[in-house]
């Protein structure tokens, strides 16, 4: 087995995250709108479906993490799940966007079951895919590079859907056609499944698992005895709301505030430019400043870049798009820094507890992502209810102002809120270096 991560592995890992984020973004951006405006499910009911299913599914993530940590096969701990699960999640995605033309009660029941199934299968893909990054190399710098490429790939996946998703819908009949969502879901799902499957086929696991069988009860110590991980997860729970809220409200915003769904393309362009610039700038920033300081600074500046278009943007689309890009730039920085810090907490676990627990660490991360997504949808559902939103009706000034508040000021508050937990993150750059030295010495014995 080669000791260095090959170019092919870097490409397919990035591609796997691209496919995964295509699925997640398509679901996040369109499922609520599909439920309310196409299937006719009341906004409050639709939000309850998404929130309840997401919370239930999120609670299964730590279980999936512990299952992967106990997996031993000739393909490794994480790769086996990437060989069969992608096609199951693709089928579940298509199922979520099918209009069976049944009664309102049965429609709600089918929506609940299909979305719950989707979330469970997404976990089976998501946890092993991210955990793979922690065992793909023994070199921390190389792992960070792989994670950065993965995050860039994931961002491109989000961008493809943000820009191309609405174009797909328009090509198949527009955002008011149920068939447009179904055909778009089929295309997105097939591409995503193949991308994730290739990651499972071509990747290698180079960090050998411990020969010791770690019981579930002991494996849980990876979470509750790892204080840096707990503080990081608390911060991620809040900052993930920035993306979650924007993805869920975006289509409503461009349709009812800007008056044209095609503006979603311009939002996608501002996202790709901002996020990619932020992600590519992060390694250099980390070479000059501590991870903690870079994270805090990106949150402060990200918050400011959300407030400015709310106060001064009015209906100036170009001005607002520019500040969208700026805020996405700081989001890109926070994403890379927080993922690098997550990898450090795995090394910290091995140093402090004697075992790494990659699966459960990354499963808690996906738990936080899903729980945050559930909270985002709850916020959106409650906001639409408070704003007296009625599907397919002309927008009132009150609705437009309320959508702008949700689109800009709520993310600004979340940026600032994410700083509070990270103030207690205790792994300094000096300690991280010492941890790596101690681990190398221990492994050499």
UniProtKB/TrEMBL annotation:
Keywords: Cell membrane, Membrane, Symport, Transmembrane, Transmembrane helix, Transport. It holds the Pfam family MFS_2. It comes from the Bacteria. The chain crosses the membrane at residues 12-33, 39-60, 81-100, 145-169, 181-203, 229-249, 261-282, 294-312, 318-346, 367-390, 402-425. PROSITE patterns: NA_GALACTOSIDE_SYMP (PS00872). It is a multi-pass membrane protein. InterPro entries: MFS_2, MFS_trans_sf, Na/Gal_symport, Na/Gal_symport_CS. Its main location: membrane. The keyword Lyase does not apply. It is found in: Cell membrane. This is Glycoside transporter. It comes from Paenibacillus helianthi.
């Amino acid at each position: 087995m080669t000791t260095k991560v090959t170019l092919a592995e870097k490409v397919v890992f990035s591609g796997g995250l691209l496919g995964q984020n295509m699925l997640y973004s398509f679901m996040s951006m369109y499922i609520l709108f599909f439920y309310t405006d196409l299937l006719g499910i009341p906004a409050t009911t639709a939000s309850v479906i998404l929130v309840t299913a997401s919370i239930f599914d999120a609670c299964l993530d730590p279980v999936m993490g512990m299952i992967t940590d106990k997996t031993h096969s000739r393909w490794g701990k994480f790769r086996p799940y990437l060989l069969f699960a992608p096609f199951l999640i693709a089928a579940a995605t298509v199922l979520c966007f099918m209009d069976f033309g049944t009664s309102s009660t049965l429609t709600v029941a089918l929506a609940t079951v299909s979305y719950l199934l989707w979330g469970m299968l997404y976990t089976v893909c998501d946890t092993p895919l991210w955990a793979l990054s922690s065992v793909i190399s023994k070199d921390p710098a190389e792992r960070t590079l792989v994670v950065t490429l993965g995050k860039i790939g994931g961002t491109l996946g989000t961008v493809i859907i943000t820009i191309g998703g609405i174009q797909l819908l328009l090509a198949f009949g527009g955002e008011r056609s149920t068939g447009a969502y179904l055909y778009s879901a089929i295309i997105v799902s097939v591409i995503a499944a193949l991308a994730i499957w290739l990651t499972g086929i071509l990747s290698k696991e180079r960090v050998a698992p411990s020969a010791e069988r770690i019981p579930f009860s002991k494996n849980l110590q990876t979470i509750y005895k790892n204080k840096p991980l707990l503080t990081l997860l608390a911060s991620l729970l809040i900052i993930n709301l920035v993306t979650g809220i924007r993805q869920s409200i975006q289509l409503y915003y461009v349709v009812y505030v800007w008056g044209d769904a095609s503006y979603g393309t311009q939002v996608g362009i501002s996202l790709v430019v901002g996020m990619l610039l932020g992600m590519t700038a992060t390694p250099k920033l980390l070479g000059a400043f501590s991870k903690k300081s870079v994270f805090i600074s990106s949150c402060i500046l990200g918050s400011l870049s959300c407030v400015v278009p709310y106060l001064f943007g009015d209906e100036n689309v170009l001005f607002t798009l520019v500040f969208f890009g700026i805020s996405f730039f700081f989001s890109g920085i926070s994403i890379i820094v927080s993922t690098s810090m997550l990898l450090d907490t795995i090394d910290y676990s091995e140093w402090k507890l004697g075992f790494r627990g990659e699966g459960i660490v990354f499963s808690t991360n996906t738990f936080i992502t899903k729980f945050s997504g559930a909270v985002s949808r709850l916020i959106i559902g409650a906001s639409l209810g408070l704003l007296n939103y009625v599907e397919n009706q002309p927008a009132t000034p009150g609705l437009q102002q309320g959508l702008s508040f949700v689109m800009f000021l709520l993310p600004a508050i979340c940026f600032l809120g994410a700083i509070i937990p990270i103030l207690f993150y205790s792994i300094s750059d000096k300690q991280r270096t010492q941890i790596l030295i101690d681990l190398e010495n221990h492994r050499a014995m």
